[in-house]
Amino acid sequence: MQRRHPNRRQFIAAATCLAGALTLPSRTLAADSIGTVTALSGVATADRSGNNISLSVGAGLMVRDLVKTGDQSFLAMLLGDATALRLGADAELLIDEYLAGVKGTFDLSGGAMVFDRPEDAPKTATTIRSVFGQLGVRGTRFFAGPNRGVFGVFVERGELAVTADGQTQLLGSGDGVDIPEPGAPASSVARWSQDRINEAFASVAPA
Predict the structure, then answer these.
(1) Would residue 116 be called left, alpha or beta, if left means φ above 0 and alpha means ψ between -120 and 50 degrees?
(2) pLDDT single digits (tens) 75-102
(3) What is the pLDDT of residues 25-75, one digit of tens each?
(4) Can you list the positions of beta strands (E) in 70-124?
(5) Could you count the other beta carbons within 10 Å of the beta carbon of residue 3?
(6) N or C: where does the chain have the smaller number of CB atoms within 10 Å of the terminal CB?
(7) For the whole model, what pTM was predicted?
(8) Domains of the chain listed by start with CATH number
(9) CA torsion 17→22→23→25, rounded to 10°?
């Protein structure tokens, strides 16, 4: 019996299917992006599954990315449609989990950040963790990070639950607290001066 060989049309069809299968992971990878870099001054990277990736404006961000900024650097990112984050110099932020419009968990292990989510956006269960304490976000704009020798937290708009040393305090617009060191309780809620507010937010803005 004579063996029949695939004709040219069958070969092209098979090759096309193979090419589609080979490109599938890259399409899946793009679909996994949960945000983008919207502004950058200086140098920033993302540690992604052990790979150190240089970031630039427009770069995609994924869950489990450890985002780092360099000395005298600044990074802004947008997660989903409404969650904006800013990082100052020498910052490290792990995107531990994120589901747009539902929840987010982040670990701030260095530097300062500003979290901003519009008041009219759907409320999400968002938590910022650090060695100083835990911040429970309630649709707000706030600063958190080193300031005047302590870890400072200031709420510009909305509400924020700050837990340190097992004690939780609720901050409203214009309120701030200081945490002197890891494991210590936060100070009493106080109104920050405008000079200190300006100083804090300037630390997460481009020079």
Answers:
(1) beta
(2) 999 999 899 999 999 999 999 999 987 8
(3) 333 344 589 999 999 999 999 999 999 999 999 999 999 999 999 999 999
(4) 74-79, 83-87, 92-99, 103-110, 113-116
(5) 4
(6) N
(7) 0.83
(8) 35-202 (2.60.120.1440)
(9) 130
